[in-house]
Structure formats: structure tokens, C-alpha cells
Amino acid sequence: MAYGVVVLALFGAVLVTAVQAGGGLPGGNQTQVRAAFDEAGALIVGDDVRIGNVRVGRVSDIALNGEEPVVTMTLEEDRDIYRDATADIKARSSLGQKYVDINPGDPQQGVLNSDAVIPANRTDGANDITELIDVLGKPTRDALSTTLREVGGGAIGHQRDIADAAAVLPGMLNDLGGVSRALTADGGAGLESLLATADELSVAFTGHNQDLAALNLDLGTTLQALNADSGAALTEVLDQAPEAMRETRSALNTLRRPLADTTAAMNGLRPGADALAEAYPDLRSVLRESVRPLDKVPAVVGQAKPTVDGLTKVLDDARPLAPQVEKAMSRARQPVEYMSPYAPEVALYFKYLREALKYGSDDLGGNWLRIIPVFRPENLSGALPVADPTVNRNAYPEPGEAATDRANHIPGRR
């Protein structure tokens, strides 16, 4: 009987010790710290208190001081908490469990008094995911619920794919960083243009769901064809692609010069094409009005045929004279070249000759030449060996000067 009483007493002591173990070993030194928060959220008595993510105590009490919840924390052993200490309520798990994270502060600020409270301006309250969701409107919450449900249902059976994606994700993050930097270049102008293009593309696809589905099926058939024989044909094409690309590049470089010449030629033709375009209305009018004259051409040709035939015969008869004419023209070339500077004087000679022979009558049967002697001082002075100072006449004028060369005397030109 006494033995049973001892066992029960020991069992009760162990039970009490286990119940109080959350607040430290019975009889051990403890430190109490109080902190005020704007929002305690789902924090409850018994939740962990941590320093540097190491459990150092538990929440022993939560009381409301005015509109601020004040949390009393019991820390195991003697721990120094300083006047600039801070406290945050953080999530322990996605199920809503919380804990208090304490930053003891700087020792140079002095130890926090046992009856002092860490003010709310140095604490950060709890933010529950449910409260964040409550901020959203009901349509948004319903859409979010549907999205999560569909994503969860779609992920069923793809655990392996998700694991593979997670395995390559770290390597993709570097590329994602490069893409992000490229998208934000120039103030995000490229990203803005991309989004605008995507929006236009999505609008263009609206109402073409059936066509897109058919295209997707055709694409699947094409990919299966490319994968025939484990992609052997595609592998062979890709193996030959570098050499083909080099040859293509060489061919394009060869075409560069002809294309440049073609560009220059097209630029040269452009003014003519522009002029033709401007003249098109007039050209069209000419072509439209020329129909009637052209209809008369056959009749004109028929009437002109005898004349043309006769002219052809004349030319045939004159053909033997062509060599003689050519020889005569060759012989006359030098005299003509010599006389060409005196063309004005020759014309003046024939003009004067025509004036001299213009007198005549039909009764006498022809024209006559009237000669009137003109006596001037130079008729006499010219016979003397001394030049007349009153006369300035050039006996041998240069070509073209005979018409303007006149005798001068002392009073002046006459």
C-alpha cells in the first residue's frame, strides 16, 4: 500500500513538471518582458519566444491595455533585454501558428526595467493571410479560390514534372535576371511595347479558339513526325545546319554587291517613275484621243505606197552616184573648212550681187547690171606711196570684220 502511494506521488510530480516544462524548469531563473503591439493576430499563450530563431521562452499572458494588446513573455534563465529592444510577431507555419521574435538591443543603451513595456513603435504586429485575403473583394476572392483549385487539380499526377522544374529553376533564375534587366532598360519602354503587342495579339485571337485548337493538333502531328526514329532525321538536319548556314552567309555576302547596284538603279529609275506617274493622266488622254487618228493610218499608208515605191526606185537609181558624191564631199572638205570663217562675207557678197542684179524687165528679156563709179579721197591717196592720215581702212580684214570695217576720217567714223 505504501509502495503504491509513493508511485502515485512520483507520477504526479512528473506530470506537474511536464506541464510546467513549457515555461522552464521549476525553480529555475526566469526573465519577464512585456511588449505592446498594434495587432496580436492569432498569437496565443504558450507560443514560442525566440531570439535569433532559437527558442528562449514562451508567451505567458496577453492582455488588452486600452486599444493595444500587451504580450507578457517569460524567458528561460536570466537574459538581459535592453532599452532599445524590438519585438516582431512572425508566422511559425502556414497553418497560422505564431511566435514572437525579440531583438535584445544594444547593451550601451542600458538594461530594460522589469516593469517597462517595449512600445508599439518598436514592435511589428501579426499579419494573417486570411486578413490579407479579406482585403480583396468577393469577386476577387472567388476568382482566387477558383484559380487555386484549378492549379491544384492540374498539378495532380505531375509531381515528377514539378520536381524537375524545381531542379532546373536555380539555373533559370540567372537567365531570368538578365531578361528582367533587359525588359527594364530605357525605363521599361521595351516591356511596354511588348505588352502592347501582346494585347493586340490577344485581341486578334479572340473568336478563333477553334482555329487555334486545330492548329495545336496539327502542331502535335508535326512534332510527332519530327520525333520519328527518335528524331534521327531532325538530328541529321541540325548537324548539317552550321555548314548550310555558312554557305548561306557566303551567298548572301556575294549578293550584297548586286543588291547595292540594284538599289542604285532603282533610285535612278525613281525620278523617271515619279515623272511617269505624274504624266499618267496626260498620257492616258493622249492614248485615248489617238485611237481615231490611228484608225486613219492604214488608209494613209495605202495612199502613200505608190509614192514610197517610186522614191525607192529613185534611190536605187541614185545609188551609183553615192561614191562620187562622197569623193566630191571629201575633196571639198578642205576648201569648205578654209572658207567657213568667211561665211558672213560670202553671204554679204551674194546679197550685194542680188541687189546689183535686181533691175530688169520682161521686155528686154533679162536683168542688167548698173555700175556707178564712186570717187573718194582714198582713190587718189591709195595711188600715192604715202598713207592718207584721214583714212583708216583695213585692206585685209579678219573673217567677219568686213561688214563693220569702214573708212575713218579726221571728224570721226562715218
Automatic annotation (TrEMBL):
Name of the protein this chain belongs to: MlaD family protein
PANTHER family: INTERMEMBRANE PHOSPHOLIPID TRANSPORT SYSTEM BINDING PROTEIN MLAD, INTERMEMBRANE PHOSPHOLIPID TRANSPORT SYSTEM BINDING PROTEIN MLAD-RELATED
Domain annotation Mce/MlaD: ranges: 31-105
Region annotation (Disordered) ranges: 387-414
Top-level taxonomic group: Bacteria
Organism, as annotated: Haloechinothrix salitolerans
